[in-house]
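subagent[fold] <- orchestrator: predict structure for attached chain, return tokens only, no commentary.
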Amino acid sequence: MKKYPQQKWLLWLVVILLITNILTLSFYWAKNRPGKGAPAISAVDREKRMGQFMVNELSLSPAQETVYWKLRDTLVTQQKPVLDSIRSAKKRFFDLLKMPQGPQYDSLLTQRGEDISTLQRQLDLITIHHFEKVRALCTQDQLVKFDTVIAEIVNRMTWGKKSPGKGDSLKVK
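subagent[fold] -> orchestrator:
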């Protein structure tokens, strides 16, 4: 024998609230989930958005913006061959896993690791020289914002989108 509440409206209210909560959560999850049909952002679009981010954050004048985009195009042109070389060097590095570990293995591993380090250093130098030129474009008022934006960019480049966690042994103290 089942006992239902004396007031049926209370039962209906609970059912309606339950359905509403389920629908709300479903819409929330569907909205925040990356869509399969969503167009992928091309590398060119991503680069333009990053460049536009700098223009917007620094509030560059039209003359500054023109010079900035020329500097940006030069940066991309200089970085592309180095990035391609890094990709190839890393492929050669990890191809060593397929090689039998003989007497030459450790020296090859070290050499290919150094090749990657050299290319990464070259890429970092290209990037810092670019930022030096962009910084030279800025007015005194824009320099403070530039330094803040660069600190954020460097943080994202080195740690991803999140800052290092509390338990991270590499965290700067």
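orchestrator: received. Logging for downstream: DSSP finds five helices and no strands in the chain. The chain has a mean pLDDT of 83.
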